[in-house]
Amino acid sequence: MGIHRLNHAVLYVSDLERSVAFYAEVLGFRRVPMTPDGFRGAAFLQAPDSTNDHDLGLFEVGAGAGRSTVGLYHLAWEVDTLDDLAATAQRLAAAGALVGSSDHGTTKSLYGQDPDGLEFEVVWLVPADLLDDAALSARKRIGRLDLDAERRRYGGQTRGGIGISVPAAR
Prior knowledge:
Elements: E1 3-13, H1 16-27, E2 30-32, E3 42-46, E4 56-60, E5 71-79, H2 82-94, E6 98-103, E7 107-113, E8 119-125, H3 133-137, H4 147-154
Parallel strand pairs: 1-4, 5-8
Antiparallel strand pairs: 1-5, 2-3, 3-4, 6-7, 7-8
């Protein structure tokens, strides 16, 4: 299937700033500026020694969160290529488990649900050497994913995450 690592987790929390402070002070996470414009009650954090764009997302429960209890929102698994992502989309759709897709600029995402309705994300990351201003600025929006266009732009077999979640060759 191509899934090869856990990329990030997203949690619903009761007090966003308290949770940000906890993860920063206790575990050394730092806040990264990638919250979509107009989106309130969310923070994205990067682990101390990580090059990933974010390792933890926090969404405050209550107004706008779509949920009133704390807990896991989703886990995101990473695939190696856009062709892997496209094949995953086909398998999820055939199983009736594909519930959405998004273009987050630096990441291309599918959203699925397991038989219990638990949501998960499968993601391909634009490699560091292919990041441009357009991809970086698009992190602050949620766009429609066009997998065919992304494969034309980046190549279906281009390894994702290199220099981001996967160390670059030295």
